Amino acid sequence: MRYTKEKIALGIFIVSILALIILMPFAFFQSRTTGKAVETVGGVEKVEKTTGEITCSDSDSGRNYYIKGVVDYCDSNGCSSKEDSCSGKKLIERYCENNKENYEEHNCEFDCDNGVCVNLVTKYKYTGGGGGGGGSGGGTTTTSTSAATESYQTYDFGALASEHHIDILKNDNIKLSISGTEYTLTLSDNTETQVTITNTNDGQTYTLNVGSDRNIDLNSDGISEIYIKIESVNTITNKVKLILRAA
């Protein structure tokens, strides 16, 4: 009887070992071939990417030098994102090609700013004349502040055919052409939370809080011509980041 019980116990042990050996490769294969990188957030599993899946998408739909784009791509090493950027007047334009991320170095005609080619950037300077004289020729302006030197930029976007992301400072100008009429908008003032823009054509001002947007009627005909959104104000450089496009 004892001999029989020992044989039974030994048989069960051997069968258990064989079952474990058979099942281990399946468990390992299952863990390696799900293809999912999983992160647990608040007790809920969140799938971040599919390992080995090759995809590529471009937010500005290819080589668009006047809209800042972001390329999201995945390959055998994982997923990542890269955005258009500037190196001096050179635009690093990223795009998808054969489902892979690629880039082109494009020389902007006038200037590159925040990942887009700017149609025209003209720099003006004005210095104090001490006596507060009138405006001088050549597009320069004198001020009554002695020994003061300031500079501002004018961004000429013409008919505003695309969306623009701009970083501007106080006194910078934005020139637009709407139905054949030219308009100039000036960043006349800003705080950390609020921005004031002046339409120099008629002196009308528009005040927007950071994070807010607005459709603006430039010629008071009851129809909005442009859309402006204030994205942020840099408290160190005092630069205002805004989005500008046709309404």
Short description:
With 247 residues, this protein is mostly beta strands. 13% of the residues lie in helices and 49% in strands. The chain has one helix spanning 2-32; strands at residues 36-41, 44-50, 55-58, 70-75, 78-83, 85-87, 90-97, 100-107, 111-113, 116-118, 121-127, 149-156, 164-168, 173-178, 181-190, 194-199, 205-209, 213-216, 226-233, 240-246.
Describe the structure.
It contains one helix and 20 strands. By secondary structure, the chain is mainly beta. The chain has two domains: 50-107, no CATH class; 117-246, Tick-borne Encephalitis virus Glycoprotein, domain 1 (Sandwich), CATH 2.60.98. It has a six-stranded mixed sheet, with no helix packed on it. It has a four-stranded antiparallel sheet with strand order 13-20-19-18, with no helix packed on it. It starts with a helix and ends with a strand. Residues 28-49 and 121-149 have low confidence and may be disordered.
